[in-house]
């Protein structure tokens, strides 16, 4: 199995997990997390991110599936990494999920991802702008519109 196939196989495994299933034993949760960590240790983030984002676009068709993916992306630490074209990525999340409709399920994790990603590149500071809301960010809104028009 080459690197790309291995990243793909592990991505399929680690994102085929219900983040909100409280009946999953702790050992199983740890296995998912450990496999994601091993993947991040072994391969380049750029290759992993591309595979993870491709997985999101190909396999997460409902708001619930996108929210689950986002929770896993956050849990696995993806929001702490540099994201190529962060506004397009964030725009895709907000394009797929109407956060106003899924406030309880999506807002906290989407905010955490957006603020984490944009904070790392100096685009957002909650100290300078404590009322920042990603769903009102003009650059994210423009990216959502671009996704709608594809």
Q: How would you describe this structure to a colleague?
A:
The chain is built from 7 helices and no strands. With 150 residues, it is mostly helical. The longest helix is centred in the last third of the chain and has 18 residues.
Strand content: under 5%
- Number of DSSP E strands: 0
Main β-sheet, in a few words? Answer: none
- Radius of gyration of CA atoms, rounded to a whole number: 15 Å
Give the topology string: H per helix, E per strand: HHHHHHH
Give the overall shape: globular
The CA-CA distance between the termini, in Å, is 34 Å
Work out the helicity level. Answer: 55-70%
By secondary-structure content and strand pairing, the structural class works out as: mainly alpha
Mean pLDDT: 95
Tally the helices: 7
* Poorly predicted parts: none
């Amino acid at each position: 199995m080459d690197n790309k196939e291995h990243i793909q196989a592990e991505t399929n495994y680690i994102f085929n997990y219900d983040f909100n299933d409280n009946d999953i034993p702790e050992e199983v949760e740890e296995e998912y997390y450990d496999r994601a960590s091993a993947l991040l240790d072994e391969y380049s983030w750029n290759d992993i991110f591309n595979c993870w984002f491709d997985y999101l676009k190909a396999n997460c068709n409902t708001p619930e599936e996108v929210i689950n993916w986002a929770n896993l992306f956050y849990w696995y630490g993806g929001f702490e990494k540099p994201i190529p074209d962060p506004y397009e990525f964030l725009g895709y999340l907000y394009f797929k999920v109407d956060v106003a409709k899924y406030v309880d399920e999506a807002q906290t994790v989407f905010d955490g991802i957006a603020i984490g990603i944009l904070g790392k590149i100096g685009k957002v500071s909650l100290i300078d702008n404590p009322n920042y809301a990603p769903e009102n960010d003009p650059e994210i809104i423009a990216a959502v519109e671009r996704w709608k028009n594809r």
